[in-house]
Amino acid sequence: GTYNFSAGPGVLPNEVITKIKNDLAAEENSNYSILEISHRSPRFENIIKHAEAQLRDLMAIPDDYAVLFIQGGGSLQFEMLPLNFANQTGQVAVLDSGNFANKAAKAANAVGKKGVIVASSREEKYRYLPELPHDFQSSDYDYLHITTNNTIEGSTYHQSNLPKTNGHLVADMSSNILAEPYDVTKFSAIFAGAQKNLGPAGVTVAIVKKDWLAEQKIENVGPMMRYQTYVDKDSMYNTPPVFSIYALGLVLDWVKDQGGVDQMYVNNQKKAAKLYDYLDQSDFYQVPVQGTDRSITNVVFTTGDADLDKKISQDADVAGLHHLAGHRSVGGFRASLYNAQPMAAVDTLIDFLKKAAKEN
Ligand code: PLP
């Protein structure tokens, strides 16, 4: 078979793709399809309400958090968060654990706030997770921004090793939301672009603590950039990405059918452990990230030889193992093992890697 190891947009459950095809086929003979419906129609109202209810259920999101559907990707969240929440000190603390955290710090500066990197592993190529300095003063900042899963570098602040702060904690969960459990109440805001673990590209989920939002005095920020607009208008101030939200709802249904986040976590740990075990005992491949810092959704590795890595990922592509090359900024390999990735993909990959190790 062919397997898709893309870091995003990534693999979606076959059942979801089949359901979408069937829905579209059935609608061929009706007046119009999901792609053509009004976002004000009862059908879509049900879809968006259902998606919100499913996400609340799967993540145990309490009522005092708003669940919002926003366009613009994770990157827009890098700008919206400081615009909405960096209002007292004007400063955002960032744990610089990877390229996307780094971008979030720069985005805060770009919107006129201050993104302050309080700890970084950038000089060490993000091989490990930076920790909060002992003298970190949460009151110096409006919030602390972390990336739970560093998609490019393959490292994760799991629930058990989240940084401890007395202040507001904001998490970019773009690449591991619903892949492993997190206690939502530990965070004041969470966001995730859908295109890795939640659905197709085009919609980003934001989970925001209502009290925190209500405290904010925000000036000179337009309605599209304010979370409050999305709260007040049920994410329909303007036209939402109808198809993406419909598909997101189907993915959430699938996760629920599979047994929810706890079951996803069990499956994902098994998949990742199998691959890491193989890589660790091999003297041909190395994994730069060690121990509990390792990601279960993005497994990053290398032969140590950039040209060889490139050749092997090209061979992998020919063999039907697609998108194995690491991010263009780091090279090497990256096997993304999102919820919908079957164990068979890992088994096939390991067989391929063994063969490549022998032949090269
Ligand atoms: N944050 C993380 C952890 C990501 O992996 C990505 C994209 O890969 C982003 C943010 C940026 O998301 P988007 O491309 O939706 O703006």
UniProtKB/TrEMBL annotation:
Keywords, ordered alphabetically: Amino-acid biosynthesis, Aminotransferase, Cytoplasm, Pyridoxal phosphate, Serine biosynthesis, Transferase
Cofactor note: Binds 1 pyridoxal phosphate per subunit.
Recorded metabolic or biological pathway in which this protein acts: Amino-acid biosynthesis; L-serine biosynthesis; L-serine from 3-phospho-D-glycerate: step 2/3
Binding locations of pyridoxal 5'-phosphate: G74, S75, F100, T151, D172, Q195, N238, T239
Enzyme class: transferase
Residue numbers bearing the N6-(pyridoxal phosphate)lysine modification: K196
Entry's family note: Belongs to the class-V pyridoxal-phosphate-dependent aminotransferase family. SerC subfamily.
Protein name (Swiss-Prot/TrEMBL): Phosphoserine aminotransferase
GO CC term, one of those recorded: cytoplasm
Assembly, per entry: Homodimer.
Domain (Aminotransferase class V): residue spans on this chain: 2-349
Native source species: Fructobacillus ficulneus
Record-listed L-glutamate binding positions: R40
Transmembrane segment boundaries: none
